[in-house]
Amino acid sequence: MSSWNNGVRGWLQLVNSGNVGIGTTSPGSLLDVNGAGTFRGTANGSPVLSLGTAGTIEAIVNSPGSTYFNIDSNNDGTGSMFEFATNRTGYSSGNVLMDILENGNVGIGTTNPTAPLYVNSSVTTNSIIAVNSNASGYGPFFQGGGGAAANYLFYVRSKDADKPFYIDGNGNVGIGTTSPQNKLDISGSPTSWTTVAGMQLSDTAGNASSRNWALFNGATGYGNLDFYVGGSAGATPNNATAIMSLVGSGAVANTLTVKAGKVGIGIVSAANSLQAYSVSAPQALFNGYSVLASDAHTYNGSILLGDTAAYQGIVDYSGVGNSVMTVKNSYNSASSLMNFDMYNTHVISLLGSGNVGIG
Question: Which residues contact 158 (CB under 8 A, 6 or more apart)?
Fold first, then answer.
């Protein structure tokens, strides 16, 4: 059966197979439309287009002012999805681009999204997700949900469900920990130098190997490294004199502390500006350069007491050649004095003139 339009057949074709063609004389399906078409619903929002199998409507499209796409219209709980795909002639095969599940989860690169937005990609040459704004002064914005402040605000999770980067509701940032106690909390498993908690800054330009700066805090076998003002490690800051504490292998003998401007080596709390202590080695060793011999050598060393070269006490040792040790008062005057005391008594006094007083 054919319809005619101004003497031309083909406006509407009904062929023996039961197929109906509009704009075509050889319809290839039950309804084959060649050309533009308009579907109109009613004012009350009844479906413009209903889709499904025989006797079952699974999806509808309606447009009562806005356009709505609805899946699982019969609410039979079959886990229906709205799927976008390419290279597909039927309901399967081809390439799936995006799925919207009945529970609202959206999957890109996956047909089983387990989160409201789940992106899966095997791309290795480009970013999986790129966020860009051409508006000046604007960038990506992330906002977490309500509830307790300690809830997840933002975190990065690996394929193995680890969370190497974490921000809680208080604004605390955790690297290697999901329980940051400070604005920046870094935690590691000290099984090797590659897994201890630490920071490393590197200059990749030029001779990068000589421009690295590292700060590490290990555990047993590596020692502790603490820089803080106002408290002990892990505690609420409350001691403004606690500035630095370095402990090697957990032993006091390997400790370097700086508190209230006093440096202690091998001692936790120094009583003087510089205090060194050891029960098994020299308390202090100065080697490398002889001031009086103007010579650098591993056998040499000098201790300078005072301000300038004209007002200094010098203890100098040159281990090269004749191996000379010198104790010198550099003040150039006949009245300059060097004393050797026993308790509060001058045992020997040496004047710059060369005179020697005993007793």
Answer: 164
pTM strictly above 0.90: no
Contact between 260 and 245 (Cβ < 8 Å): no
pLDDT tens-digit map of 53-83: 766 777 788 777 777 778 777 777 667 788 8
* Residue 39 CB coordination number (10 Å): 10
CA angle 221, 222, 228 (to 5 degrees): 135
Q: What is the phi-psi region of residue 306: left when phi exceeds 0, alpha when psi lies from -120 to 50, beta otherwise?
A: left
Tell me the pLDDT band of 169, cut-offs 50, 70 and 90: confident
How far apart are the C-alpha atoms of 5 and 122, rounded to whole Å?
Answer: 55
Over residues 247-298, the pLDDT tens digits come to: 555 555 567 777 777 888 877 778 888 888 877 777 788 889 999 999 999 8
User: Which residue, among 267, 285, 215, 303, has the nearest Cα to 259 in the 3D structure?
Assistant: 267
Radius of gyration of the chain (CA): 42
Domain boundaries, the chain: 79-121, 153-187, 288-358
pLDDT at site 292: 92
Using a 10 angstrom Cβ sphere, with 0-12 exposed, 13-18 middle and 19 or more buried, the burial of residue 108 is middle
Whether 351 and 336 have beta carbons less than 8 Å apart is answered as yes
Q: If residue 188 lies in a helix (H) or strand (E), which one and from where to where?
A: none
pLDDT band per the 50, 70, 90 thresholds, residue 191: low
b/e code 323-345 from CB counts within 10 Å (16+ = b): eeeeeebbeeeeeeeeeeeeeee
